[in-house]
Amino acid sequence: MKRLVCSAGLVGIAASSFAIFGIHTGPNDSSSFSGVYSFGVGIGGAYALTAKHAALHVGDTAMIAGTQYTVTNRFDDNPADLTMLQFDKALPGSFSLYNTVLTGQPNIETTIVGYGQSGIVRADHAGFDIVGGSGGTQRSATNTIGDVETITATPDYNFTYEGLFCDLDSPFTDTPSGFNRDWFGDGSATANEGGVWAGDSGGAWLVDTPGGFQLAGITTVNLSDDTATFYTGDPNLEGLFFGVSGAGAVNLTNPGVHQWIVSTVPEPATFAPLALGALLLLRRRKR
Ligand SMILES: [Ca+2]
Ligand SMILES: [Ca+2]
After folding, report:
1. CA 167 to centroid of ligand 1, rounded, Å
2. Rg of the Cα trace of the chain?
3. CA 71, 73, 75, 76 torsion-angle sign
4. 14-69 pLDDT, tens per residue?
5. What gap in Å lies between CA 58 and CA 132, rounded to an integer?
6. For residues 142 and 118, is the Cβ–Cβ distance under 8 A?
7. Which ligand is closest to the CA of 145, given by its number?
8. How many whole angstroms from 246 Cα to the centroid of ligand 2?
9. pLDDT, tens digit, for every residue of 111-141?
10. Domain spans of the chain, in order of start
11. Three-state DSSP state, 183
12. What are the pLDDT digits (tens) for 176-229?
């Protein structure tokens, strides 16, 4: 397994949270992933997963399409940067959990969805500049999950967990030396290569399957390779350098994390649509 040598910053609302950007994703470009909310990701019924360092608290409310949802329970008893929220009623959208365990260097594409600040590509093609005040709009970007390993997020938090990691590859042929490298050695940029920035914590890392998008990770950190020195001294880059920067999520496919999720939800919430269908069928038969 590759060892990440990097500094990692949490991307939540707190000290240094993060946002979605991508080469085709500007401040006004939004996609629609029902089930990904600014507070986390619906997993069925009244439950959502999010990053612990940015999670709502019991009694907090969120508005979805004009309806208010209130947090009634918060489950923090997981060592990862991961919290489960329970609301007072079922959330309108959700994703099922990706059911393949990701380890080593899976090299599969993920679609990252969040509400953080957006970035625009710099004229010199060395990376992105953050667009100030651009948070709050749902955006998506893609990347390749090139590494799965256990990290400790920052000294400020006691999170140690297995994460999914992506490097930020340049899609340009004229990117300056150093920034044009493939940090993880997992291949070049995807069609809408991007990462995360402030405000993206708690967002979704989705894998496209024949059955639709499934949830593999929850956004938690961004990374930079602090062994690379060619980018230092350029404050405009803000840690969003091609060849140096990356994004990280809590690996929900880790067996221990998966077990915590399914055992914390008191009912098989992800089976709710199926149960409803069965109920309708029974009613129909009675007629
Ligand atoms: Ca990449
Ligand atoms: Ca790469």
Report:
1. 4
2. 19
3. positive
4. 333 344 666 655 444 556 798 999 999 999 999 999 999 999 999 999 999 999 99
5. 30
6. no
7. 1
8. 9
9. 999 998 888 888 999 998 888 888 888 888 9
10. 7-36+96-255, 54-94+260-286
11. coil
12. 999 999 999 999 999 889 999 888 999 999 999 998 999 999 999 888 887 888
**Whole-structure pTM over 0.70, yes or no?**
yes
CA of 188, nearest ligand number: 2
CB 271 within 8 A of CB 277: no
Structure tokens at 181: 């490298």
CA dihedral (64, 70, 73, 77) in degrees, to 10, reads 50
CA 280 to CA 276: how far, in whole Å?
Answer: 6
C-alpha–C-alpha distance, residues 241 and 107, integer Å? 21
* Interatomic CA distance for residues 5 and 223, integer angstroms: 9
Residue 95 CA: distances (Å) to CA of 56, 121, 203? 20, 31, 12
In angstroms, the first-to-last Cα distance of the chain is: 60
Q: How far, in Å, is the centroid of ligand 1 from the Cα of 265?
A: 33
- Rounded distance from Cα 88 to ligand 2 centre (Å): 42
pLDDT band for position 271 (50/70/90)? very low
Residue 258 is which amino acid?
A: H
